[in-house]
Design goal:
Number of domains: 1
CATH architecture: Up-down Bundle
Structural class: mainly alpha
Distance between the termini: 25 Å
Largest sheet: none
CATH topology: Growth Hormone, Chain: A
Shape: globular
Order of helices and strands: HHHHHHHHHHHHHHHHHH
Oligomer: single chain
Number of strands: 0
Radius of gyration: 20 Å
Length: 394
């Protein structure tokens, strides 16, 4: 199996998360209130936020492959812990381990893929590979979503996590066969002071380059908006009369559609250009969100939710490529973690506001707030078409 095919296999395996369509029901089945559920995700997000840069530094100093292996092991362990969870504290511990695993991977796996393709002659285009990864991820999600409710119904909520642990374990094991990269500074044993300077220099790099700053804020705001919107899909489906047993089927069908659409992100980028794609599809996505927020209530409204998810799936590989074009290879994983750090920070600010708006006013009002965030990310951080790559030699 080629290294690129291993990337695709990893994308498929890591998205075999059968618990996604039933996770809130699982928490409620264990007697948790909505407040406790909210705190589990919030504390996990804060934990991830704090660890983003340290885990990125670890990857740059001691190897991206090693960091990815640690990540996949911790995620496997977290699924087992979720399966054995029985109360708030045990769920909180499982989620913290899960977020720790994600922190070791976030930014780093993307940097590894980018670095491998840059170093290996004859490799396919990064955006093409990233789009294909999204394709296999969406295929995997559609399968997992379709089966998750059935598994929970037949065998219990906990069993969905134990089943998800099997592909997670395979994913962990197969990463040992990944190629080793030529990485700057990997053999160096730096002291804490040097590590702090390394992080400060990387943060300074993200702020000094105006276009890089725009890419980070554009991506972070849009991602936070989509993350918030995603929380309202199930309540919306319930409100428009979709029966619970069909939730998984609808999710699976739309995710399958997203998989094929994401696969053609590279074609769109080649035809229209990366910056134009990011700018215009982000602005267009404001329309379906505001329509839902203003009271559109029908089965067709579900399609508008998933249209926005489609936009995020097209944007993601393109914005990642734009971001990496502006950073140097020596601190690419750290810079990737800084990107994730901004995304986590903005999500931590946006999610509570959106949740509070939904409780205090209505779901529609909260969705209108989301549409405003999308508009801000599109117009205030409109990207320049004068896009030039830096010298990113290894």
């Amino acid at each position: 199996m080629t290294q690129v095919n291993k990337f695709y296999l990893a994308s498929f395996l890591k998205n075999q998360t059968y618990f996604v369509p039933i996770i809130v029901l699982f928490f409620q089945d264990l007697g948790l209130s909505y407040s406790q559920i909210f705190w589990i995700f919030t504390i996990g997000s804060i934990f991830s936020f704090v660890l983003e840069i340290p885990t990125g530094i670890f990857a740059d100093l001691y190897g991206k492959r090693r960091s990815i292996i640690i990540s996949k092991f911790l995620i496997f362990v977290s699924f087992i812990l979720f399966g054995f969870s029985f109360d708030f504290l045990s769920l909180l511990l499982a989620n913290i381990i899960y977020e720790l695993g994600k922190s070791f991977r976030s930014g780093t796996e993307t940097a590894y893929v980018y670095g491998y393709l840059s170093q290996t002659k004859g490799s396919p285009n990064y955006i093409l590979v990233k789009a294909n990864q999204k394709f296999y991820a969406r295929i995997s999600e559609s399968i997992g979503t379709a089966l998750g409710g059935f598994i929970a119904y037949k065998f219990g909520f906990n069993f969905a996590f134990f089943i998800a642990a099997i592909p997670a374990l395979i994913n962990f094991i197969q990463t040992f066969s990944w190629s080793k990269l030529e990485e700057c500074g990997q053999a160096e044993k730096k002291f804490l002071k040097d590590n702090i300077k390394f992080a400060k220099d990387s943060i300074k790099e993200s702020f000094l380059k105006s276009e890089l700053r725009k890419i980070i804020l554009n991506t972070a705001l849009f991602s936070a908006a989509v993350l918030s919107l995603d929380k309202f899909i199930q309540p919306y489906m319930k409100d428009v009369g979709v029966h619970l047993q069909y939730f998984g089927v609808i999710y699976s069908g739309f995710l399958l559609l997203l998989a094929f659409l994401a696969k053609y992100a590279a074609n769109l980028e080649e035809k229209f250009g990366a910056v134009k794609i990011i700018n215009y599809i982000s602005l267009i996505s404001f329309v379906p969100i505001i329509l839902i927020g203003l009271g559109l209530s029908s089965f067709w409204g579900i399609g508008l939710f998933f249209f926005v998810m489609m936009v995020e799936n097209i944007r993601s590989p393109i914005s990642n490529a734009l971001f990496h074009d502006y950073v140097s290879s020596k601190n690419r994983a750290t810079m990737g973690s800084i990107m994730e750090l901004f995304q986590s920070a903005i999500a931590l600010m946006v999610l509570p506001i959106i949740g509070h708006a939904a409780d205090l006013y209505s779901m529609n009002t909260a969705i209108i707030f989301i549409s405003i965030i999308v508009l801000i990310s599109s117009l205030l951080f409109w990207l320049s078409t004068n896009h030039k790559k830096i010298n990113a030699g290894i």
